[in-house]
Amino acid sequence: MAIRLYDAVPSSNCDRVKIVLHEKGLAYETVRIDLGKGEQRKPEFLELNPYGKVPVIVDDGKVLFESCIINEYLDEKYPTPPLMPKDWWARGRVRVLIDYGLNYLHAQYWALRGELLKKEEEREPRLIEDTRQTLRDLLRYLEAEIGDKPYFMGELSLADIALVTRFFRMESYGVLPAPFLPRLGAWLRRMKERPSVRATL
C-alpha cells in the first residue's frame, strides 16, 4: 500500500517530506487539504493530527505528523539511500542545523512573512529591510558551517532537505541572494538541480 500524504500547496513543510519521498523513490498518494477553507480544522483531520497542521503521513495504517519527525521515520524505515550520517555526533549535528535553521530563525522569518503578506500600502519598508538584514546576519552561521562542502554534512542529508524549503521562501522574500553568503547561494543552486527538489518546485 502506498504511503498517504496529507498535503497542502503551497507548503514548505509538505515539500520537505515530498523531497525525501522522491529521494528514496517511494510511491505515495496525496490527499489535498485546503488550508484556506479550514479543512485542517475538521474533526476527521484533527483525529489524525491534533495540531491541525500538514503534513501528515499514513504508512501501513500508522499515522505520523511534523515534517522533520516524518523524515527521520522515513529514513529509518526506508534506509536506501541513507539521509542521516552513521556517526552519532554527525547525526546530532544534523539535528542542530535543522533546529538552528527552522527554530532559531523562526521569529524573524515569521515577522518578515507577516509583513510581506500585508497589502503593499500597509507594509513598513524599514521594518522589512531591517528584518531581512537580521536574517542575513543569522545565516552567517550556516555559511560558515557549510564551508567548502557541497552539502552541510558532505553528503546530502536531512539537514539540507529540512532547510532548503525554508530557503526558497527566504529567497522569495528578498533575504537571498546576499553577497556575503556565497556558499549558501551555491548550495541553494545545487539543491535546485536535484530531481527530488525540482519535482516539488
Can you walk me through this structure?
This protein has 201 residues and is of the alpha+beta class. The chain folds into 2 domains: 3-77, 3-Layer(aba) Sandwich (Glutaredoxin); 88-198, Glutathione S-transferase Yfyf (Class Pi), Chain A, domain 2 (Up-down Bundle), CATH 1.20.1050.10. Helices cover 54% and strands 9% of the residues. It contains 10 helices and 4 strands. The protein has a 4-stranded mixed β-sheet with strand order 2-1-3-4, with helices on one face. Helix 1 runs parallel beside helix 3 (67-77). The mean pLDDT is 97.
Task: Calculate the terminal CA-CA distance, rounded to whole Å.
Answer: 26 Å
Q: Note the beta-strand portion.
A: 5-15%
User: What structural category arises from helix and sheet content?
Assistant: alpha+beta
CATH fold descriptor of the largest domain: Glutathione S-transferase Yfyf (Class Pi), Chain A, domain 2
Which blocks of ≥5 consecutive residues have pLDDT under 50?
Answer: none
Largest sheet: 4 strands, mixed
Question: CATH class of the largest domain, anyone?
Answer: Mainly Alpha
Strands ordered across the widest β-sheet = 2-1-3-4
Number of strands: 4
The radius of gyration computed from the alpha-carbon positions, rounded to a whole number of angstroms, is: 17 Å
